[in-house]
Amino acid sequence: MWWYVGKRLLQAIPVILGATLLIYAMVFLRPGDPIVALFGDKPVPEGTYQALREQYNFDKPFLVQWLLFLKGAVTLDFGTAFSGQPVIDLVQRAFPVTIKLAFMALVIEAVLGVAAGFYAGMRRGKLFDSTMLVVSLLVIAVPIFVFGFVLQLLVGIKLGALPALVSSQATFRELLLPAIVLGLVSFAYVLRLTRTSVIENLTADHVRTARAKGLPDGQVNRRHVLRNSLIPVVTFLGADLGGLMAGAVVTEGIFNVPGVGNLAFQAVRRGETPTIVSVVTIMVLVYVLTSLVVDLLYAWLDPRIRYA
Amino acid sequence: MSRDLNPDQPLLEVKDLHVGFAADKKTVVPAVIGANLSVYPGQTVAIVGESGSGKSTTAHAIIDLLPGTGRITGGQILFEGQDIAHARKSDIIALRGSSIGLVPQDPMSNLNPLWRVGTQIKESLEANGVAKGKAADARVVELLEEAGLPDAERRAQQYPHEFSGGMRQRALIAMGLAARPKLLIADEPTSALDVTVQKQILDHLDRLTDELGFAVLLITHDLGLAAERADHLVVMYRGQVVESGPALEILQDPQHPYSKRLVSSAPSLASQRLSSVQARAEVREQAVQTAAEIAAEVATHDDELGEGRGTIVEAKDLTKVFKIRGGRPGQSTDFTAVDQVSFQLERGTTTAIVGESGSGKSTVARMVLGLLDATSGSVEFDGVDITTLRKKDQQLALRRQMQPVFQNPYASLDPMYSIYRSIEEPLRLHGVGTAKERETKIRDLLDKVSLPASVMTRYPNELSGGQRQRVAIARALALDPEVVICDEAVSALDVLVQAQILTLLNELQSELGLSYLFITHDLAVVRQIADNVLVMQNGKVVEQSTVSEVFENPREDYTRMLLDAIPGGSIPLGVVEAGDDV
Description:
The complex is a heterodimer.
Chain A: H1 2-29, H2 34-38, H3 46-55, H4 62-74, H5 87-122, H6 127-141, H7 144-158, H8 172-202, H9 205-212, H10 217-255, H11 260-270, H12 273-301
Chain B: E1 12-22, E2 28-39, E3 44-48, H1 55-62, E4 70-79, E5 82-83, H2 89-95, E6 100-103, H3 117-127, H4 133-146, H5 152-156, H6 165-177, E7 183-187, H7 195-212, E8 215-220, H8 223-229, E9 232-237, E10 240-246, H9 247-252, H10 257-265, H11 267-270, H12 274-300, E11 311-325, E12 332-346, E13 350-354, H13 361-368, E14 376-381, E15 384-385, H14 392-401, E16 402-405, H15 419-429, H16 435-448, H17 465-477, E17 483-487, H18 495-512, E18 515-520, H19 523-529, E19 532-537, E20 540-546, H20 547-552, H21 557-564
Helix pairs in contact in B: 3-4, 3-6, 4-6, 6-7, 12-18, 15-17, 16-17, 17-18
């Protein structure tokens, strides 16, 4: 198995190189001059302009820019933002918040999604099942920012049950509402996936054999239906965790969460290459690592899968 | 309720049982109509019938595990005098495992792939209060040993995918017997296994029955097997019990027309008869004659591959070595699946390749078809080495002249294609005829395989297994091939359907002068279809001879073992012969 883990980590290197190169190319091709934009309406003094261009390597061809970034990245120097702060500091502040948010969303969608999906699958065609099918379809169909604003208004402002905005502290209570919004769409997918999988497994031969052994229904459902139904769900959740990080841009914007989504969004608007590329690099790294963890989890859930 | 068994009282009594499946809210499709049967303590009773006869439904009704919308709509099921057809759910759960055990049909799908085999048996012990914790673990090992699994302690720690089919079935037997039930329902326990493994498993089950004294309700489609293993037979046909009585009596003097058909045509029984040898000789004579005419034609045609030789397929020293990836990158071990196999297939005859799973017989078939490259050796089709065919039109010609029929008619037809489209596809691919001509051809093909033209617009899921295999044969014949390679073409079918398909293949051979390469694990079917036999074991040919020679004077122990494994082979038959009008 260690061979496999090592191989997967080695595979991450070309992925990160490719991703950063792609981002560099895209930022380079972006219309407008970031330095000019920095001064807003005011005229830019020629000397300062040249100095800034040199400081941020904007005067060099983009391949050179990219190589210089890589050189710095190896020593954990990701450059400085336009505000003068080292990018690494910005990222260090924003990442824990986003990870906390994404993890909360993951727990909400996984726990509630599997529970509701399992219950719906067991009572196929009954009221709960039909309701869940309609609700999940609705959740999938409506854009996420609509839910964001509606919940913010209803729960956060009208009812005042939860904070409507997130402070720089980003406490658990403050993050609850954005986490629900962030996890909502995936909750609907997890629910549907679990439901289908449970229905399929209920008629499996080995489930009948388990009943024929004299096992009580509870044990049959838990040990032979639920566990087998989780395999496709785990695959989905793994792929989704990366999506939760990226999808955080919209949700973080609505609730003013000081996370990477916000950071990346601001940096893109300013054309601040070092920040954008740093955030993306770390996102890629997180994605590679989570998918590795999911694959290992997958092997633990399903003994037929062995990595060599 | 008294737990003592009275040998005069039936352990299980099914009285006028009706089972139906609800098609919609109003209509109920009956599956079992007024079935009666009784099983006495320690007795083995077999229910025999084809797919859809209601035999498995009866078995599942007894332990209340009817699938889907199935319901008991009438009658009684008395177990030790108590009606369990109308018992509460908790009472039935209490009965399962401890009083009535089940050994299911397909060992591949009946073990949960996510739990260790030992854990799954332990569940049965714990659920029925036999043993707990460490004691249960120890008992699991004993049970696996009892079921004839060597190295049981290690095996209990393994997962189902690490077991072969036969080993899984042994684990399922251990599971079914874990709580020492008084009645064991064995639902086609060996139909998914090779005949030799089938014999081992059933022999073992027989020994356990004798030692432990439980009663067995054996469900099977094979009359030969039922008669060999059971004291009492119940023959079911279309949901009804048509005949029941002592096994030998039914076999030697069947009363109902359906039982008569079963006795006369089940390949396991028919293979003993000399009449099948004579019938085969007649088929061959005619086929060889027709084939010679075709050969003469081929020799003069340029667009056909080959020279019109008498030997249509010749394999020389065919060898296939697979590389198996090792634990580390770059590591691999060689596995020789086929080792120096040579044979000749004469025009208008059938050569059978017989062996167990893993003997390499299917690999040979794939190499002959050109679907797999041989590591060394050659295959000549009518004097042309097929491994050297480089030109596209030559390769296409080979495909036209050599066609396969595969084992599983459920998997080899595209479920989204209508029957017409499935049969038309090869014709269209090879650009044969106009749309109108193709339709005429398809009608003709369906007629040849005895299917009504009305099936053209239907889809595979609307047809039975036997009908689907007829479609697969029609598709194989669409391009007028000279050679048809049948890879376990009848193994997935019920005995009577097997017999029908074998008859069809014989008829087609004599009519069209076809040559067959017939791959099978079951020697029983060989006598009705083949002229020459190759017996393969572990990739090597161990015996190669004519069919009658192999049946009458088997030289190798392995061949003898395969012959012994034919169920019902030792039972003296009655007067019914294949030719009788029934």
